[in-house]
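Quick start: what a row looks like.
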Amino acid sequence: MATNSSSFALRRGRSKTDSSSTTASFGHPVVLLTTTIIALLVVGIIMILSASSVQSFASYGSSFVFFKKQLVSVALGLVAFFLAYRIDYRRLKGFGYLLLPAVALLLFLVLLPGVGDTVGGSQRWIPLGFTDFQPSELAKFALILFAADVFARKEESTFLQFSHTALPMLPAIGILAGLIMMQPDLGTTMLLAFIAIGMLFVAGAPLRHIIPIGFLGAGLAIGAGLAAPYRRDRILAFMDPWKDPLESGYHAIQSMIALGSGGLFGVGLGASRQKWSYIPNAHTDFIYAIIGEELGLVGTVGVLGLFLFLAFMGIRTAVRAPDRFGMLIASGITIWISLQALVNMGAVTSSLPITGIPLPLVSFGGTSLVVSLAAMGVLLNIAKQGEDGPTPRPKRRSRRRNSGRPAAAR
């Protein structure tokens, strides 16, 4: 994914007029990425209003509670998005070394009695009064920044040695995974592992190193999945949900009923029957099923198409990134968002076991949305600099005083 030097020089040589006119065109990566992100946000806001209305009214006496909370999260997320876009991504060098330990500390604090808030048997949130903060969502972004900085300092040839592949990546992912598994949250743990392995591959680590690490991670995931009874039930339900239709297979069956009921064009926006307490977490983990029921195959394919286009633009951004650091960040963010969307859609369509991972940029959830939009802002900045050329850094003024000697003598 190395950037061609001649094309890089050409991009740097563009005038400000050329750059601004390119940015204004519809085909510019910044415009295409922003349009795709806004489209996913709009779909999410509309579908959260529809999917959460019944549960919201039953719990709070109003159908708009979750909808209003999501609007606040969208507003905060857009602020984070535009701030991240305005900041030169190169200024993030070294930030991962600070953010990763800070996230690890938060993951430890959330496990302490009286600090973390337990919901549904999982202790993942830190209550802040006006909202709840989920440190595991920030862990994804922190891992990407940390890995990008570490790998950017290494030449691809150094990855021929296993020590350069394993260190310090495996200890970092081990600490994060251990703390997240104590919540417990196997889905996020596996997602972090996939992000790490994906970034190792992009950074140039050979398959003879990646494959054993992958097998080790798969073995640990299978062991963790079979160790807890409820996780084992999910795996068995994935293999045959009709064996226990009222317990372990209930979510998968109700999700398939929703998707099947939608047909080609859906039953109509707001007309879902499955959201009437048939599908638990209809506005979070299973919002894709409600999209399929209300908007039909057209709606689900449309959302899938938006994520596929987002993945394509992410890969394009990584390929055209001005430097290795930008390429690694863009690759990590693309792997994260694309893979999380794939896992969620796979669980909803019973193609994968249920993991409890939300659909990024669409599902209800404040921390997930704000962190994802901040990451999208960084991706947008890389895309802009990759297309228009890197933003020149301001030159520092020399502190050397004029000695009064003639210019020729100086």
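That is the whole record. The mean pLDDT is 86. The chain has one domain: 39-388.
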